[in-house]
Every structure is written in C-alpha cells, then in structure tokens.
Write a structure and sequence with these properties.
Rossmann fold, six-stranded parallel sheet, homotetramer, Dihydrodipicolinate Reductase, domain 2, 21% strand
C-alpha cells in the first residue's frame, strides 16, 4: 500500500482527491492537512466522509508529513507550493503539485502572470507537466509533477491533434472558455457569493487570465512555433464543468470526417479522451465526475474554419482525477485505477 | 420632493431601496453611504444603475446625512442601527430601520438573541413596528419605524386572521420556513459561497433563529396570550423568495371555505395581501419583485389541522418595498406609490 | 456473473442503476429497454456512457428479456409494472420493482391514490418492501421486491427508532419534505421546464401526495397502531436530494442525548444510516451520490418536541442504489458492493 | 388610451409584455389570447397577475381581436405569425410581430432556415425591422414591425459602430453567444426539463442557428458588403440573460480608448445602449429586467483584435420591452414610457 498525503485537504480539489483515493485499492491516505484554525476531523469539515475516513486535518507539519507519506499531493494555491515542494523533494518524496508553480518553464513569465518572483528555480527544470496523453513516458520517471490547470487541460487536448498535424493556422486560435464556480477554489469572497453568481453570466480576465501562458507554452511546443492563442474565460452559474469552444482556421480545406478521423487516431489508445462522431459535441454533464476529456468537431467549409468543443470536469480531469492518473503512472498502477 | 438617505446602500436591501425610489415620483435620493473602503460611484458598485443615478457612496457622515435628508433608511446589520438611529432622531429625522434593533420591546430578549446589551432603550419604546396591515394608524405618526424581519413578515401576516379570530390552538403552531440566499445579506462568507449553496439544501438554527422572538412577540399580541411558535428555517438554492408552510390545529372543525372567507375578509382592503381561492397555494415566483404577501389555505378535516402557505419576496415585502410602503404611509403618499 | 436487465433505462433512475452496475464486479448488464421511438445505443441517449457500455436500448421484448436476465429492475412508472412484473415472475426471474405498484398491501388504497384498479393482486401478497434496514431477512428470500419510494425511505428510517421505542405521540407526526426535481422522473412537462422551477419554490399536493399511504402503512406497522402522519412535499430548484424536517411530540420529556443514543443503537450495524452527533443535522450534499440516509435530531424540552432532519439522495437511497442494495441481499453479495 | 392586444399571452414573452403594459400610462390591454385548451383567467395562468388584471385568455378570435385593438403584439412562434398578421394588417391595425416571420427579406433564405415556404411575401416588403437604434425613423411610419430576435439584437448593436466606421475586417467576425433558458420559449420539451439544463452547459446549433441569416442580413447592410459572421450559441443554466463575446480583427491598429470613444459617440443619444468605460465589461445581471443593451470593449494591440462583450435581457431588449419601445415610437409616446 502506497502512503499518500494531501496538503490542502479542505479545498474542493483536496476533497475530491480524498474521495477518489478512498476507492483506490493500492493507496492509503496517511496524512491530510490544510490551513486551518484548529485541528478538526476531516469528516466534520466534509460530513459526506462520516464513517468513511478517520483522519484529522491540522496545519501542515512537514516533518510529520515526510515521515508518513511516500507521495504528497499539493492542493494549495500558487505561491505556497514552491515553498513546500522543495522540502518533500529533498526528502525523496514524490510530489504532485496541483498549483501553477511548476508549470511555466520561464520564470520571467511566472513573475509577470503571478506577480512574484519564483523561489524554486532549481526544481522547475525537473518538473514534468502531468498531462498523460502527451507526456506519459516522462511522467513515469518524474519526481515532481506539475499537474495541469483546468482550462489548459481542455485547451491543449482539444488542439494537440490539429497542431501536431499542422492543419491549422497557428495565428488564428480563439478559445472561448466557460467554467463552473468551483474552478475558483473554496474561499470566502464576495465575488463568489451565491447570489452574485446565480442567475448571472460574465466574462472575466479577457485575454489576461493566468492560464494563458500555460496554454501557449504547450501549444507552442506542439506546433514547434510560438503560439499566442486568444483566451477568454466566462463564469457559469453551476458548480462543476468546463466547456471550451475553440475557433481555428484550417490551412486548407479539409472535411469534417477527415479531421474527426485524425483526432480519433491521435487518441486511439487513450482511455480518457473521447472523440465524438460527426454531428455531436459534448456537454459538461457527459464528463461530470469522470476523468474524461470529451471532444467534438465541426467544420465550416466555406470559411475553412474548425470548431472544437471540449468538455471536462474541472475538479476531475481538470485537477484531482488527473493528479491520481499521474500517480498511477508513476507507480505503475493500472492507469484507470480508482478512476472508472 | 422628499429628500431621502440610504445608510447601507451596498447591500442587497439597500440596492433594492435605491431601485424602488428611482421610480418614486415624490422622492429624491439625496444621500447614500455604506461601510466602504473608499468613495465610489453607486453605479460602479451596481452597474445596473449606470446612467440612472449620479450618487457617490462613501462611509457614513452623520452630519452630512442629516443636512441632506428628511428621512433615512437604515439598511445595516443589527448592532449598527442602535448606534446611529439616535443621532438622526435627535435631529428630528424620520428613521426607517431595517435591522432588528428596534423590533423587540424586551431588551433582555434582545440580549439573549443578539448577544449584546441594547444601547438605546429610550427609543425602543417609541419605535413602531412597520407592518402596515396591522399597525397602519400608528405608522402614520411614527418617527422611528422598526421595519419587520423577512421571516416574521410572512409568519405574522399568515397567522393574524386565525389568531385574532381565535380559531386555532395557540400551542400548536409550527412554521417551516424556506428562504433564498439573499436573506443572509451581501457579505463574504464561505457558508454562502456559490458552490456551498447550489445543489444543496439545509435546515439551520433549528428552533433557535433570532427571528423567533420577533415572531412570537407579535403573535402573542394578536392572540392576547403568550405564544411560543416552533420555527425552523431552511436555505434554498435560489436568490430570492420566502415560502412558509405553517401547521396549526383548529380549535374546532371548520371548513376550508369558512377559513378562506375569514382571511379574505380580514385582508379585504389590503392592497398587498392576496388570499388564494380554495385549492390554490402561492409559489415564490408569484410574488417576485412585488410588495405582496400571498396566502393559501387548506384544511385537513379529520385531523382538524390548518395548513397555511405564505410567500413573499424577502428583499421586497420582507425588507425594501415594505420600508417604502411605510415611508408612503408616514408622508401620506398613496400607499402603493413606487410599488405597483 | 449475474445477468441483469433494466426495464426503463432511459429515465433518471434507470440511468443511475446502469451507472452503479457498471462498477459492480458480480453483475453483467445483459438487457436494457425503455419506451422509445426507435432502438438506440444507450451511450447515445446518455453520452456519459460513451466507451463504457455497448448496449442497445429498444422497446421491451419480454421474451428476450427473460432469456437474457436472471433479475430485472423495473424502473418504470406505476401502472406499467403490474402489467409486466407477472411475466417475469412466472418465468422465475427475480423482480425489483421501483414503481409504486407493489408497495401498498391494500388494493382499495391503491385505487384511491393511483386512480385505477390493481391488476395483479396475487403478487402483492408476496411482494417484500425493500427497505433493508427493516426487512433484510425477508428480502433475502424475496422473488418480488417493492423498492420503497423516495419520500417514504427517508420518512420511515427517520421515524422507525422513535416509533418502535414508543417515545412519541403517534398522532402528532408532521413531515415537511423537500425534493430536487429529478424526483419527478424524466419526462417532458411544462411543470418541470427549467424556468418554471429555477428560482422558484413551491409546496404541492399538500397532504394528498400518493406517497402518504405508503408512509403511513409502514409507520403503522412500526408503531403497531394506525398512523396518519401529515405530509407536505415541496419542490426545490436543484437536481437531486431530499430533506425531510419532521416534527413529532414526545410522550414524555426526554433529553436530546438519550434520543440520539437510542437512534445510534437502533442503526448500530447499519452501514447506510448515519445518525449525527448532538448539534448537527444533515444537508443534502452530505449524501449526494451515496446510498446513505443521514439523520439529525434535536429536542425542544419545553415543548417536548422532537425535530428529526433526514437526508437522502432521491436517485440513490431513494431509488437506484437501494434497489442494488436489495439485489446484493437477495444474492448474498456483500451488501455494499458497488455502493461504496 | 391605446387599445392593445397580445396574441400568445401565455408564453414568457407574452407574459412580459403584459407585465410592462400594466405600468404603461397610455395603454389599455384590451385583448389577450393564446393557444389554450379552454378559456382561463390570465391571473390563473400567471398568479403574479392576481388582482392586477382582469383578462380572460382564450384561443385567438381574429374578429374579436380586430374589434377591440388598435395594435397587436404577436408573441407566437414563427409560421403562425405569417398566417395571422395579414388579417390584422388588412383591418388597418398596427402589428408588432415578435416571431421571425418578417425579419428576413429573402424568402428563399426563410425557407432554408425555417423549413417552409413563406406565405405572406407581400407584407415582408413593408415590414420594418424594429431595432430603434438603427431604424427609428422608419419605425415611426411602420404598420408592420418585425421585432428583432434576441441574439441578433445584441450582435447587431455590438457591431454596428465598428462596421459603419469600417475599422474591422468583415470576414473575421466570430460571435460566441450564451443564453438563459427562457430564450427557448415556454413549452414542454425534455430538452428543457429542469434537470437536463441545471448543472449543465452546452453549445448547440453550431454555426447553423436560425438567427444567423438575420444577423448577417443586418450586418451586411451596416457594412455595405456581404458578411457571413460565425455564430455559436450556448445554453446557460439560468432563466434570463444573453451575453455575447465577439471577436473581430481590426483593419489597422487602433487604441481601446479610440474605439470606446467611437462607440460612445455612436450611441450618444440612445437611452438604452450603455457603452462601458475602459477596463469594464457587462454582466447579464446589469441589464436584468431592463431594456438596456450594455457593451464593453477591449483591444489586443499585438493581435489587432477587438473583443466586444454585449449583454441584454433576452425577454426584454431581446423581445418584450423592445416591442414596447417600438410601439412607443410608432405612437409618438415618450420612448422610455413603461421601460424605466
């Protein structure tokens, strides 16, 4: 049994990791912690765990965590991860970081988008981006995994086949993204008060969301050239789910069927990416509580325009279940263990 | 034109008062303020007011408020009202207080339920409870109006005809109340985070909500005997609306029609209470954005049990529009001005 | 492997049964059908099943169903079950009926509440009510299981310890129930149109809901006397979840702790009933997607009144997962298989 | 007093027209009808009108309608309007049609998008598109007004200043639109069942929505050249509101401030279009229950890309209140009467 710790167990993502691991036959949750006023039963914080876990959540005690875990999930805000990951790495623990701290390779860019200097340049280099569909082989060897952001997960998977096959104009990518409210984390903020979000719809951080450099870094790698995709996120009055509607120009006329075939082939062996048949596009509920990224495709022949619709559950493939998928890969467990 | 000030203009109730007064032909909003970091256009805080108001919201300046207003609405939390109302009253201004500070006549009870000693006993005595259907004549002369709580408004109006006609067992009253989330005010709190309320349902403060003594004080007056009604509120995943399902035993068998007739007669001249015909009960959307309290009645003959279903919009009849109704009464305006 | 069929696989309950059985190691879904215009892949109807099931849903073909199944779940409306259950029973198949057709023992009552004469009196006698916490032993031998209604499941479990221990006044039971919209099934109806339910709250079928006789039949058995509980359901703008707030008079003063102890003892060995500690009551999200019924208790000493708050997921313990729990019992599988 | 009839009074749009006209001082609702099983009080269909209207809703009786009305609003589905509008026009009544039947000038296009041949070519010619901000002068003389679709209203107003000033590449327009569920009308359909929409998000009719030719017809007129904008609508789990995020390339680099100035100038005298200051974009709640179209603008200098965010209330500026605005213009009433 693998001993696993969860740092940040009181957030939505932390809760989901606990939830998944409870059903994982090869894992024991050996440690949970969070920024918390006083130690509390995890089942008191999340009564759904009543009778299912017997864990006490206290503030992080690194020494204790190191002693009790083989691997830790860091389900904490950016800025925090880069302070604590080095300690776990030094103690030879596997770290799966769900914050943004180890995703950007360029620390100048990190400073620009996250507003502070990076404190752990050394480990950035060795961090592996935890998108199994693209980086599975490297993940197998990883000590530090930078688990992808929710918006980037959908965007990169939606565009990878088109970019690697060079069928699209890389200057033309527009990503109109929509997310449920859990994407913002679990924190007291008037902006996320129920009556501010319910029966309302808004665009935010138009073309200046901090997930943009992450998306562009990986799209650029896929296309082998610098990409600056346009990205506009929207907040939807629902708990969970991301839907991205992506507009991109085709280099030359290509039929819908050809493109669907291309995508199906690209993801042929991937258990968690589902490419839809012609005429169908995913809705967010199709992927609720799953590790799937669903992709639908449509072509406007006259305009040589490709529409890509991608859906994920932001707490699952966009965070917790993808983190567990990465863990499974690192330890050689069957990749869908706990994720069926 | 009456010059009116709104203290606490950035809350949901304050916003609604502004909204209503903008359509009121005999009123000018001459002052708005709120606890705020720095002065801000009201239309910046609530962009729906863009182009409709030209008011700057700053922290309370009592002197300035007194100079510019004939009447002030205090749309602030309890504890705050009793500190500022006396200053306005001393300056001979009319005060309509939407907090709980002047509703309870017994200051011991205030201390018990609100957790601190009352600081303005003097004015409690002269405060008039602003429920026009029961206290219209006194409201006409009032200097200080204690605008009723949202739950009490529905409960008292729902029970008044039954209690004054002595047809029910006063020991048997059970009020199962349900409210949308704006009832909690507009403040950052994890409990009211979107994803904590959406797709969830809970009872809270079971038989210990601070609106209980207010309800019981007025039910007791109506019945001329001490009443301790049972009261259980629930939080519903919607923005606005209160529905109360009330269970009370009949003293002796009485037909549904007799009781409906009794209620219709009781509220015959009231423009804002609508008693439904047999077989019908109100839903919250029937009263959305109105000053109405809708009441439906049903009788279980065998059990001699009366079911009363009452609906109000918590921000309207439960707060803002009832406050304006009270203002209209005090100044002799047509009672439904601005409220149609 | 047990071969299982699902009649009515396109409803919310049918979908949930499929969902659960896909994770059940001892079961194979060998047949699905529903009232449907033309045969369709189940994964086309519910795209979440894409790549997970390879089943075609067509109209019921009893012969085919009998050939391919050891057990059938009937997830169909009442009136339909009593027409098809006899055929499966005759063919010696186990039937777990999720409709109301075999719950009421008194066929006159069936006629009164469901508006038509019962067509299968014979099998009513042998039908076992599938509430494992009360009838586990009989379920083990059952051929025909009447899976409980959603409201009754919560009501009966919430009241069973109090009634069997004779601590409450059986004439005083008031059940104020609230349910999400999936409780109504999946069918086109203006009443369940999104914008009719969203941002609205209503009571319906006040004291005349068809689940009343079911509740009263089983409460009466528990109390060994005729009970006529008051029951008022409400429709809540959310997908899933039932919360029942129950008011009942204590025969004599009893402390909260004594009653909690009584309840904990009653459900001591039950894996799916969780009795809360003093001061806590369940919310619906605590039981979302679980087979749990959570119960919270509170006492008003002065009024000798007991408050019981019970929460279930209407599609799970209120329907699909309870049906699977019953299947597990019949076949001697571990009772929580597929339900963890 | 103008005598006004509403055909289709039981839909969301019809309800809203009644709502608005009840507050209109120069109008009397003299006739209401709808496709209905049997005649019913309007206040029975919409209990919010209890005590406010005394109208009976029956099936359309054209003769009676003609006798009692000077003007009729046709709040009916397409296909129906073109059958009844001619009768009212022949009787010299003013017709404001809220369906799509008189919006497209090209009847071949009508056939393509609405699936049937147009039956009233004659009146198409004289129909005036009721978008006051662009066609006010013509509306003044109109006998037949084609009230704009909800999506087109926002799209055309959002793009008009950019197109008429020729600052954008007309081949580059992408409209990513999001709408609440009332946009689909009030009809029983499984697709609009509460639990199908709640907690779900989907794109639909990707680049093939019937509002596309309407949008393109008017954008083309504004640009004096054929435009084929890309249009993808999404269904949002909320009742009301449309938000459109529009992506369009600038012909040459232009500053955000220049464009905002251009837009503010364009709509300078328009009471119902609000152009936001730099750094701000509208949310749907800013326009809820108003006749406003709010527009926010942002420029990506490097990519020479213009982002336009436009918000309307689909039932108001997108339907009912715009129809009343048109009526006000035709009759020379103050344009904002009933719409403040």
């Amino acid at each position: 049994m693998l001993n696993v710790g969860i740092v940040g167990a009181t957030g939505y993502t932390g809760e989901k990791i606990v939830d998944i691991l409870l059903k994982h036959p090869q894992v024991r949750i050996s440690y949970v912690c969070a920024k918390i006023e006083k130690a509390q039963e995890l089942s008191e914080i999340f009564p759904k765990f009543l009778g299912k876990v017997d864990l006490v959540c206290d503030n992080l005690n690194v020494e204790k965590a190191i002693k009790s875990c083989d691997l830790v999930f860091l389900a904490v805000p950016h800025k925090i991860s880069m302070e604590i990951a080095p300690m776990f790495l030094k103690a030879d623990k596997i770290v799966i970081d769900l914050s943004a701290d180890y995703r950007l390779k360029n620390i100048e860019e990190y400073k620009t988008w996250y507003g502070l200097a990076h404190k752990d340049k050394k480990n950035i280099e060795n961090a592996i981006y935890g998108l199994p569909e693209l980086y599975r082989e490297r993940i197998k060897q990883a000590k530090l995994i930078a688990n992808p952001g929710c918006y980037p997960t959908a965007a990169i998977l939606a565009l990878a086949p088109a970019l690697t096959s060079e069928i699209v104009d890389t200057n033309s990518i527009i990503i109109d993204a929509k997310s449920g409210a859990t994407g913002a984390g679990r924190k007291a903020s008037l902006d996320f008060f129920f009556s501010e979000i319910n029966e309302n719809l808004k665009a935010y951080k138009i073309n200046e969301h901090q997930h943009m450099p992450e998306i562009n870094q990986f799209l650029s790698i896929l296309a082998s050239k610098k990409i600056n995709a346009v990205f506009v996120p929207h907040l939807i009055p629902m708990n969970r789910g991301i839907l991205e509607t992506i507009y991109v120009k085709l280099n030359k006329a290509k039929s819908e069927n050809d493109i669907i075939t291309l995508y199906k082939r690209f993801y042929k062996t991937e258990p968690f990416v589902r490419v839809y048949d012609a005429g169908k596009v995913p809705q967010t509920r199709n992927v609720l509580d799953t590790n799937c990224c669903d992709i639908g495709l449509k072509v406007d022949k006259n305009k040589k325009l490709l529409f890509i619709v991608a859906a994920i559950d932001n707490l699952m493939k966009g965070a917790a279940s993808q983190a567990v998928q990465n863990m499974n890969i690192v330890y050689g467990f069957k990749e869908d263990t706990g994720l069926k």
